[in-house]
């Protein structure tokens, strides 16, 4: 008779208890998988930030503009390698519900600042040559069925054209992918010059500047120089590394990591108590059986392994079901939240962390009853029956 068969039979002898315990473990790992995926999606911008990339915004807040005149002045600062600028468009396609993260950027420098945007050379040349050209991320292109060569209208819920109306016409000249799986491919970029010349207000202003330094060690010096240069002007600046900027932006939403840690920690602590109590109760009920097994020649080490294996199997079954359900839920929500959380996915490292927790949970809840079974005295056990 194999050990796995014995473990399975002991585990399934109380089916109602087993079902309730598995459900509790399932819910805990479901919560862990979903919340951890959201946490990683919120923080993906921080993780993908380049050490030498910096963001310059208006000191009042990032929704206030900066004059385009700042571009050449900032480019001339020692330590600045390449600089581009962008303006938020507030776009949607066909229906206001179809939100698009669309940005008007300097096409000539955009790809130098963001080498993570992977675009075929022929599409890159076509985009540069066409002032009405647009490049779309693969995810959003698939969502709306766009193909290279399509001419599409895109509306803005912020800007209008000089000629009236809020719709701009664009040619899809390229569909980009990311250099990593986590890079955002739900965004759209088009020529700032085309946008700036045709909008009815805000001409010659940009939303923010993005630059790369020649050496990350120069970041603080470059930031201080830029902010000092524009101090006491009508448009003072705040310059930070991309990582610091993204951290500050996420902090405005809330401390997601703390929320996840608190909720998941409470869930697992509760599960630890439930499963631990279940295992102790199960072994206490089987005291006589364990004594008989020892009498029949089962080594104490094998009994220890059987009890601990039971706890591990219980944790793994419930945990794998929970993390599997989390994967399905996150996958189902990805399309709906693509515009807000384009990198939402249950990543392999979340799954591996969950697996490690399953093993740890199984060990912690099984070690005490396993040791009790290992040390059980046959005579003492029989006298209790």
Automatic annotation (TrEMBL):
Domain (ABC3 transporter permease C-terminal) ranges: 264-377
Keyword Membrane among UniProt keywords: yes
Pfam families: FtsX, MacB_PCD
Subcellular location: Cell membrane
Predominant place of localization: membrane
Transmembrane parts of this sequence: 20-38, 256-283, 303-330, 350-373
Ranges of residues in domain MacB-like periplasmic core: 23-227
Keywords, comma-separated and alphabetical: Cell membrane, Membrane, Transmembrane, Transmembrane helix
Membrane topology: Multi-pass membrane protein
One Gene Ontology cellular component annotation held by this UniProt entry: plasma membrane
PANTHER family, per database record: ABC TRANSPORTER PERMEASE, ABC TRANSPORTER, MEMBRANE PROTEIN
Protein name as annotated: FtsX-like permease family protein
Organism, scientific name: Gimibacter soli
